[in-house]
């Protein structure tokens, strides 16, 4: 009998996917930095770009960012219900909390069965490696 349970994406795969996404965002960050002279405006624009990139990618047919796609991972709801735009936005805005807590919210993924981060738990989502 085939295994139908999801395989949760491991911590280090998620770290690699996040770093790949940061590389994707370097080009627009550099471009913005050449035109924006005020740090606070630059950081707010980068936050908006980051949130838009991840939120749109998660609700797209890819079900995740380019980094997650390259690592063959998808973001989905814990219960398997439809992954709504509001949930994707909450998940990504909650990453700020994960970061503010000295990245402890991200490190949570290394210490629980579903490899969920704080922002995954807040939004009711998981990152999986879909069955092939």
In brief, what are we looking at here?
By secondary structure, the chain is mostly helical.
Task: Give an overview in words.
- Helices cover 58% and strands 8% of the residues.
- It contains seven helices and three strands, in the order E-H-H-H-E-H-H-H-H-E.
- It has helices at 11-35, 39-59, 66-70, 85-93, 95-100, 104-107, 118-123; strands at residues 7-8, 74-77, 125-129.
- Helix 1 packs across helix 2 (39-59) and helix 2 runs antiparallel to helix 4.
- 28% of the residues are buried.
- The model has no long low-confidence stretch (mean pLDDT 94).
Topology readout:
Layout: E1 7-8, H1 11-35, H2 39-59, H3 66-70, E2 74-77, H4 85-93, H5 95-100, H6 104-107, H7 118-123, E3 125-129
Antiparallel strand pairs: 1-3, 2-3
Helix pairs in contact: 1-2, 2-4
Roughly what is the average pLDDT, rounded to an integer? 94
Spatial order of the strands forming the largest sheet: 1-3-2
Q: End-to-end distance, in Å?
A: 15 Å
Count of helices?
7
Biggest sheet record: 3 strands, antiparallel
Fraction in helix: 55-70%
- Give the low-pLDDT segments: none
Strand content: 5-15%
Question: How many strand segments?
Answer: 3
Which structural class is indicated by helix and strand composition? mainly alpha
Provide the succession of SSEs: EHHHEHHHHE
Tell me, briefly, the overall form: globular
Q: Evaluate the radius of gyration.
A: 15 Å
């Amino acid at each position: 009998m085939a295994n139908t349970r999801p395989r949760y994406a491991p911590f280090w795969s998620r770290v690699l996917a996040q770093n790949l996404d940061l590389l994707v965002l370097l080009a627009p960050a550099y471009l913005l930095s050449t035109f924006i002279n005020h740090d606070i405006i630059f950081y707010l624009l980068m936050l908006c770009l980051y949130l838009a990139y991840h939120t749109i990618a998660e609700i797209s047919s890819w079900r995740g960012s380019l980094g997650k796609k390259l690592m063959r991972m998808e973001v989905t709801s814990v219960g398997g219900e439809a992954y709504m735009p509001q949930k994707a936005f909450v998940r990504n805005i909650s990453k700020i909390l994960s970061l503010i807590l000295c990245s402890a919210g991200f490190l949570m993924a290394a210490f629980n069965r579903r490899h969920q981060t704080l922002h995954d738990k807040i939004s009711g989502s998981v990152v999986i490696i879909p069955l092939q």
